[in-house]
Amino acid sequence: MDALYPRDRTDVLEIIAATGSFLFISILLLIQQPLSRNHSMCTMVSRKLYNMSQGQTVTAELARNPSQCPQKVFHKLFEGHHSLHAHSGSDSDSDSASKWEQLEELQKARSCGNFGTSETSELFLKVRQVVKKIIASSNFRIQVYHDALCCLEKNPMSGVVSPPLLGGTGVLPLTIVAPLPDLCRHLANCIVRAEHEIFLGTNFWIHSDASTLITNAIRELSKRAGEQGRKVVMKMIYDRGDPRQAWDNRLNVKEDQYVGGKVRLPAASEIPNVDLQVINFHRPIFGTFHAKFTVIDRRMALIQSSNIQDNDNLEMLSHIEGPIVDSFYDAALLSWGKPLEPPFPLLNSPVKDAPISSYGAEQNGASENGTDALPELTTKSPHYDQDLRHEARRVNGSIHPLQNETPTQAVSRHLNTTIQPDTTGDAPDSDQDPNMTPYMLLPDHEPFAMAVVNREPFGCEYSSSEQIPRSPSNPKQAPNHSSIHTPQNSAWISAINHAQRSILIQTPNMNAEPLMEPLINAARRGVIVTCYLCLGYNDAGELLPFQNGTNEMIANRLYNSLESDEEKSRLRVCYYVGKDQTRPIHNSFKKRSCHIKLMIVDQQIAIQGNGNLDTQSFFHSQEINVLIDSEMVCRAWTELINRNQNTAKYGAASAKDGCWHDPKTDEIPPGSMGPVPGRFSWAKGAIGRRCSPQTSANDGPYSVRHCIHSILTKIHNQPETYRPRDAMSRTYDQPIRDVVDYVYKYQLDEDDETIWKSARTSLLDATGCAIETAATSTTCRNFLGPMTKTTVPNGFKVPGTDHQVDTPKGAFDLGLLIRYLDHNDALGGAEWGHPSDNLGAIIPVMDWLSRASIAGEIVHRGPPLTMHTLLVALVKAYEIQGCYQMQNAFNAYGIDHVILVKLASVAVVSWILGLTEEQAIAAVSHVWMDGHPSRVYRSGANTVCRKGWAAGDAARRAVQLAFMVSQGAAGSPGALSARPFGFLERTFGDSGFVFPHAFGTWTVRNVLFKTMPVEGHAISAVEAAVLHAGLFRKKGVVDPARQIKNIYLRVTEAACMIIDKKGPLYNAADRDHCIQYVVALALLKGSPPVAVDYLDESPWAKSEELEALRGKIVVQADSGLQRDYLDLDKKSIGAGVTIYLENGAELPEILIEYPVGHARNPQTASAVQKKFFKNMSYMFSAAEISRILGAVQQPDILISDFIDLFIPFSKSKI
């Protein structure tokens, strides 16, 4: 070891000398340098800009004369003194000019794009104002395109595309979020399937497994082309930095240069049927060609985040088809920048009228998620596929566990690459549900609006072949930060500035100064700003002068710029965590990093491509990005991003310092510099750059973007220790965190109609039960309304009444109305329960928030207060309660099942209120510390009407707990596990809770809808009794009480425990929870009970016949029925009824396993509909009921408007 020290000392001296030289040269370059043309921009769409957008394109001009240089063509068309648009600021046609001036600004922007007449492009302009002061959707989508477009006025080349092609339409059949080899596999398949031409641009190309996948594909393409008698033209650009680029940015790379060394492309002799040309493009000093995109046969564009090199990155690729591909084709020609020798064969074949190739492919029934593991496409094993679906099946199938392999091990195997083959994962197998899905195929869809939002490279521009004259409009460029207003940058800033609800960013680094203030302002005005960053990605490069610092430094700065805890709660910085990990791993270890570049705003628009949100990409590098306008794609991308990593679950930074802290030790991760890197951090950056053995994604030899950990750790003694202990660093019990993770991070499948149909049915059934109760139960009505007569302005309007109450009382009242008659939905398990009880908390909170927001009383910070949000909350509350019910018998400890109403409701209400995840976790912890209701009020002679309002009480308490935490009440991390008083210590013990499956959407699809007001375990027995009663006449039974000797009920063990009652029945609550009473009643009536049959004044309550028949009923528990009752694959609720007559005859058992109301009974749908119409008819006309049914189908309807429909005789706002 001692021998190493002199070498280290020498290296450090060399580094200091090199750093000094670098700084001296940089200072010289910064003196008297010109500004970029992009240092300012216009804010209006001028007539000149419109004329540019309607003119010719570089592609069209090259089609006319392929021998021309693309750069010269662009200059002639758009930039020179004699260009077509040089003097078009006004129009000689006064009528045209007048019409132009009369257009709205955004209409002008739209007219500059090629959006056609499709509905999607019309949506670009549409402004939808939902209510007076709450705007659910706005014109920000076209505004983003407008702001990108305006950059072209002063510098048409800033977008690296002919202005007429900035906007267009396209489709997005495939998205990949996966380790780099998976992106290269798709690129290889597309290359192999090419027929005429290929353009491939990448920042970094190094001979590697990744590059070999591509070069093998080029060889295979040549072989296939030869067999078919054709030749393919392929042009490729990379950035490998060369001193000669000081006088010629684009260097032709000769074959003897690219076949050896670190490139190793195929020689011409290896690919006789592929005409390959290569250019090395770099604009010194900082104008890196950072673009990574491919255009094949002018029919598809692949926009990706990845270079071609082996690394540990998670990457993203969008496969785009349709007319917008012509825009990427034009950008490819401008990037090439030299005469095309030979030209591309398809210069004369625009994509506009061509069919979508991926839609026309024969799929042969292949599924993208097939369970059969197919051989992987590797460098040693070429397995090329015929279409996208077969590709997806092969790649997605490779993640299924092999023999003796756990789900997490399978994911680790897939994420491991040649540079880190042995990394192991520590994530529990439960984290693999939902499973990682590298390839996501979207269903066929109509083209929607897109735009290319690029930026040109900014450096010292010159090309000996181009000989473009310099002028004030085309100055010599210099290495400063004046190249600001490019389509890429303007699109980013505009999207952030116009966001109304949410921003999701994933980027390796985020330190571009112009983005900081917009992000801070977004969080201040109520937008949820989520940033997934990579821990330590190129930290050394980011520490150099003018680069603005590391991710941890930026996160700390952003949090410190926000004043209140509420504002800070809306900024959610997370560090990338691999799908198989539970903590971020510093990039210096090269084990799990993320290189995705993505921004999604309001789940409506997204920007994806090559550009990082860092200083280099913002001010200097050439980038290619796509702006899309599709809610479908945005939601799919959000789900895919979260599905394929554990960042949201484990990667949250502390709002105290912007760093990730170990939840047990509170330490920052190994390799992390923290928010204050210490003295001489700029020198550490230079050392990291000088000694890096491997260049990062955004580097060329002229770049300052290198990072290495080994020498940094030698000098990085961190004299300033900065590791405050976050309150959340105390680890909350896992079940508490899991509930909140599910509510805040789980994405429902927007395209799975079974989820939404089930949710709407559940909502209608519950509200129908509430109206039934309000209309028919005098006892219940006595409990409704304020304790002291009053009306609460903007309070919750209680359905079926004229009460308007505060939110907690509203939760009690609605919970009471839904539950009181025991007619609402139910779910069995080790614990019985009624998931719709949770609507008692959800709906009043949303109704109050909506009314108070409209009145200007509050500023809502949570999700939109619409039907869609209500259905999401319903599904998640149902699922939490359902998962806890299945295998956890709270009743064994004397605790009533409404504890789960409190649990599920407090979690979703916290989300609806806009609480942070940390606050929601605290609120959930209070549930387990709370006083828990005893089951005594459902048991034997102690059964009282409290069982009818217990759910309302739980809903009220859930709302109170969420409100208290929102006002600063702290939670208890050990509420479950603390000894000796934690909840589990007093109940389930070390075994804890048991769950049948991970949280998903199972419960809402499997609830039992009660078509009769009977305790759920008795429904099948009542249904069987009604069928028996229908046979009495045939059997000669006219006096059941005298002619029946015995009745045997074969039921579940749960039924025996809950509703098997002998002896006197004291009240209505007692009667409806007695299986003997309801079965005897059904036999005598010949129909199911109704609510009034349980009342004290009912003749059945005093019937001697019924009492005599009840005494003849024998209830027997059946282990088989109980087993099927608990089996999630069967989930029956069986009961058999056998009757023996006094004359010795036997009426054979009638067994009902799936009664009407069960998800598996085909009569359920019609029965529930009939029940709903009957219940609603107590108060409403057919027309009013029809409006309610229509409202449930409107995802954007405000909940306050929806609730108004349930107020009798009120005038609807719909």
From TrEMBL:
Region annotation (Disordered) ranges: 357-380, 418-440, 461-486
Gene Ontology terms: cellular component: mitochondrion
Keyword field: Membrane, Transmembrane, Transmembrane helix
Gene3D superfamilies per the UniProt record, alphabetical: 2-methylcitrate dehydratase PrpD, Endonuclease Chain A
UniProt GO MF annotations: lyase activity
Boundaries of every PLD phosphodiesterase domain copy: 285-312, 590-617
Membrane-spanning intervals of the chain: 12-31
InterPro entries named among the record's database cross-references: MmgE/PrpD_sf, MmgE/PrpD_sf_1, MmgE/PrpD_sf_2, MmgE_PrpD, MmgE_PrpD_C, MmgE_PrpD_N, PLD-like_dom, PLipase_D/transphosphatidylase
Compositional bias per record (Polar residues), positions renumbered to this chain: 360-370, 462-486
Family: Belongs to the PrpD family.
Designated name of the protein: PLD phosphodiesterase domain-containing protein
